[in-house]
Automatic annotation (TrEMBL):
<keyword id="KW-0547">Nucleotide-binding</keyword>
<feature type="compositionally biased region" description="Pro residues">
    <location>
        <begin position="40"/>
        <end position="69"/>
    </location>
</feature>
<feature type="region of interest" description="Disordered">
    <location>
        <begin position="1"/>
        <end position="85"/>
    </location>
</feature>
<keyword id="KW-0472">Membrane</keyword>
<feature type="transmembrane region" description="Helical">
    <location>
        <begin position="167"/>
        <end position="190"/>
    </location>
</feature>
<dbReference type="InterPro" id="IPR027417">
    <property type="entry name" value="P-loop_NTPase"/>
</dbReference>
<keyword id="KW-0812">Transmembrane</keyword>
<feature type="transmembrane region" description="Helical">
    <location>
        <begin position="125"/>
        <end position="147"/>
    </location>
</feature>
<feature type="compositionally biased region" description="Low complexity">
    <location>
        <begin position="18"/>
        <end position="29"/>
    </location>
</feature>
<protein>
    <submittedName>
        <fullName>ATP-binding protein</fullName>
    </submittedName>
</protein>
<keyword id="KW-0067">ATP-binding</keyword>
<dbReference type="GO" id="GO:0005524">
    <property type="term" value="F:ATP binding"/>
</dbReference>
<keyword id="KW-1133">Transmembrane helix</keyword>
């Protein structure tokens, strides 16, 4: 169990407590490869497994392969009895979670008391309380021992009748009077020492913490009491008592981790939508226990975890808000986290190399999305330079190493579509999307038209799209290639498409034609290093982003060294394909996430427009930039406006800081202006006093006047962002897909 109470899955940091955590493939044969739209069937590969069939929901129909495991230990109590288990998983599952607002780490969060502008420092408050106790004790001792006389007993003798001075009435009267005097002392010195404030600030939270540690089942997310989640009350309420008993037994025996819990919860949600699946769900749980409804790869956890995750709220912690006056009071000292509701508005992070973008942001977010993919909740695609080390190969189902001869997968250059016009639009965005602003007229549309005039006839003639060398020859206007294509069309009877070829030949001789420019850009991919890639004749090893309807974990390594321009072009292509495929999904129940590490020259006008469409499609993009100068001047403000989450790391320039300051806007703050004015004395005695004070202090006698007013100022100025953010820190503002937002907060990324 790490600091902050985060849960480490049994397989995350070492060996499992039992055989249940062994890989699912260890005992049985690997799952039989099968194909669906856009997902290749590669050669045997230890880290990859084919995804689920097209259109099938991830949870119930998929059954885990047989695996050797020990018999679960007999639980020491009935499922509904009070629990005193101390296993890390059960402690994590039963921890309190308070939905305090977007961006706040909900695991174990305790709301802060209301802000008190005149709040006393803790040292002054405690010292005052101790002094009040000592003074009250001293006064009470002096009165009790008679050192101050017996006058404090006069009300007792004056106000009570003589008949009360004998027998038990006298005893009760005296003790009641003593209690009244003691209460008066406690009240007076309690007010002087601010004892109620000490109770609220220190004693009450300590008692609440001890109460939570005593085994009390905390409240659920959003507040309100609930049953023990380890007993699976939602299954029992639906009548699946046997399945609930099996899962509760495996949870208490240490055979379940947080991914298993989240995955089965996801499967149960599909059962609630379609009650007819209840019997199949129960049978699967009784057969496989915690390994039921497993991911197609059979994996139940990642090989290693570097960040703190909470799969109940689907959050990943990236740091903690600094206790700084520039941060809102509610956020000070609270943990900060990201989840799909925030990533669904897309996130842009800007910072120089070495500021922590990859280590402190990209890797935790990617790790979280991979865990949620194993739980059947997310499809994630990570794009980065080869050797960036975003995550180990074992954490992914598909690894595309472009330019590497040992890559088992290839990338579909056309996005897995059969529509020539759609394929032409996506390919044109990847090839010349960064040049559309400099092209005459509507450059992007003209480039897409040129490609469509070739892709449509070629697919009609050959049943597939052309490979890179074939497409380059056609764009160059090679007579042999164009003649062969025309002959194939005539032979197949596609006379209408022959006119497309004729139109392409006529336009090729006009000035400003986009064909030569497309051919030059395509020549960057027609290199010996990419000879085995972008092959349209072998669909068995080609990966397409049309597979985003399935809980896949994909990593695409770009050939950064020696092919920088080709890498940027491929990054634009993947971004264009992602925005197109994520919006076109028929089933949007899975959150689709694209993590693009170093989006230099990837932001184009069409890409910025596409980011705005992802919010309603349950998808989002994480983009990182070294500087906003990597984005065209005309798109910088539009890019910052298109994303809902913005992050500025330490070391940004004042020019970048000015853009962030502009988009974060201003706020009303209260300022205090103190003015010193010299006091002029008119009386002789006062003048003498002022002369003496001036000789002693060396300054004239002055009086201060304080002016309090409200002014509007920037939340974070460009200078503060450039020079006031310490190393290892960042300023982050978030917005959820439902419209909730949080102002920019200074975060310590190392906490």
């Amino acid at each position: 169990m790490e600091h902050e109470g985060t849960y480490d899955a049994p397989g995350a940091r070492g060996g499992p407590p039992g055989a249940a955590e062994a890989p699912a493939q260890a005992a049985g044969a690997p799952p039989r490869p099968h194909r669906h739209a856009g997902v290749p069937v590669p050669p045997p590969m230890p880290h990859a497994a084919p995804p689920m069939p097209h259109g099938a929901p991830p949870p119930v129909p998929v059954e885990a392969p047989p695996r050797p495991r020990t018999v679960p230990q007999q639980p020491g109590r009935a499922p509904g009895a009070a629990s005193h288990d101390r296993s890390p998983f059960l402690t994590w599952l039963r921890a309190s979670r308070v939905a305090a607002g977007p961006g706040i780490w909900a695991y174990g969060y305790r709301p802060k008391p209301p802000e008190e502008p005149d709040r006393l420092p803790g040292r002054q408050l405690l010292s005052g309380a101790v002094i009040a106790v000592l003074c009250g004790w001293l006064l009470g001792s002096l009165l009790w021992n008679g050192y101050l006389g017996s006058y404090w007993l006069w009300p007792l003798t004056v106000l009570t009748p003589d008949s009360w001075h004998r027998g038990m009435a006298a005893v009760w009267t005296v003790y009641i009077y003593y209690a009244i005097c003691l209460g008066a002392l406690i009240y007076v010195f309690g007010r002087l020492g601010r004892w109620p404030q000490v109770w609220r600030r220190y004693v009450a939270p300590l008692l609440a913490r001890l109460w939570d540690d005593g085994g009390v089942i905390p409240a659920a997310v959003g507040g309100g009491p609930r049953q023990d989640p380890a007993d699976w009350p939602q299954l029992r309420a639906a009548g699946a008592h046997e399945a609930a008993d099996r899962l509760a037994a495996e949870a208490r025996a240490g055979l379940m981790n947080d991914v298993d819990h989240s995955r089965i919860e996801r499967a149960w949600q599909s059962v609630r939508v379609q009650p007819g699946r209840l019997a199949s769900f129960t049978e699967t749980v009784l057969r496989h226990g915690a390994a039921a409804c497993a991911h197609p790869s059979g994996a139940r956890d990642l090989p290693v975890r570097a960040a703190r995750h909470d799969l109940v709220t689907r959050q990943v912690r990236i740091g903690a808000a600094v206790d700084d006056e520039r941060n809102p009071y509610v956020h000070r000292g609270a943990g900060y986290a990201l989840d799909p509701s925030l990533l669904g508005t897309s996130l842009l992070a800007v910072g120089p190399p070495g500021s922590g973008k990859t280590d402190r942001l990209v890797r935790p977010v990617l790790e979280s999305q991979c865990l949620q993919a194993l739980a059947g909740r997310t499809a994630v695609v990570a794009v980065g330079a080869a050797g960036a080390g975003l995550a180990p190969d074992e954490a992914f189902d598909v690894v595309v190493r472009i330019g590497r001869q040992d890559s088992a997968y290839d990338l579909d250059l056309y996005g897995g579509t059969d529509d020539p016009d759609e394929a032409a639009a996506v390919l044109a965005e990847g090839l010349v999307g960064d040049l559309t602003a400099t092209l005459p007229g509507e450059g992007g549309r003209r480039a897409a038209t040129v490609l469509a005039q070739i892709l449509g006839p070629y697919r009609a003639a050959h049943g597939r799209f052309p490979s890179v060398p074939e497409l380059r020859e056609l764009l160059d206007g090679s007579p042999a290639a164009v003649g062969a294509l025309r002959a194939s069309l005539v032979e197949a009877g596609h006379e209408a498409l022959v006119r497309e070829i004729d139109a392409r030949e006529r336009q090729a001789h006009r000035p400003g034609d986009a064909g030569p420019m497309l051919a030059d850009r395509l020549a960057l991919l027609d290199r010996p290093a990419f000879a085995r890639f972008f092959d349209t004749t072998d669909a068995s090893r080609t990966f397409s982003l049309r597979a985003l309807e399935h809980p896949l974990r994909v990593r695409i390594d770009l050939p950064e060294r020696g092919h920088a321009e080709a890498s940027r072009m491929l990054a634009r292509l993947v971004l264009a394909q992602f925005t197109e495929c994520a919006v076109a999904r028929g089933d949007r129940s899975l959150f689709a996430c694209l993590v693009l590490d170093d989006a230099t020259h990837a932001a184009t006008p069409e890409a910025v427009r596409g980011l705005g469409r992802l919010r309603s499609a349950n998808a989002g993009v994480l983009l990182t930039l070294r500087t906003l100068d990597d984005v065209p001047e005309s798109l910088r403000s539009a890019l910052l406006g298109a994303v809902g989450c913005r992050m500025a790391f330490s070391g940004v320039t004042t020019w970048d800081g000015a853009r962030f300051a502009e988009v974060w806007g201003k706020e009303w703050v209260e300022t205090r202006d103190v003015t010193d004015r010299q006091v002029i004395a008119h009386e002789p005695l006062t003048r003498v006093t002022h002369v003496v004070r001036r000789l002693v202090t060396g300054r004239a006698v002055t009086a201060q006047s304080v002016t309090v007013r409200k002014v509007e100022r920037e939340r974070w100025s460009a200078s503060e962002l450039a020079h006031g953010v310490p190393a290892g820190h960042a300023v982050l503002s978030v917005t959820s897909v439902r419209g909730s937002s949080a102002p920019p907060v200074l975060i310590d990324l190392q906490r």
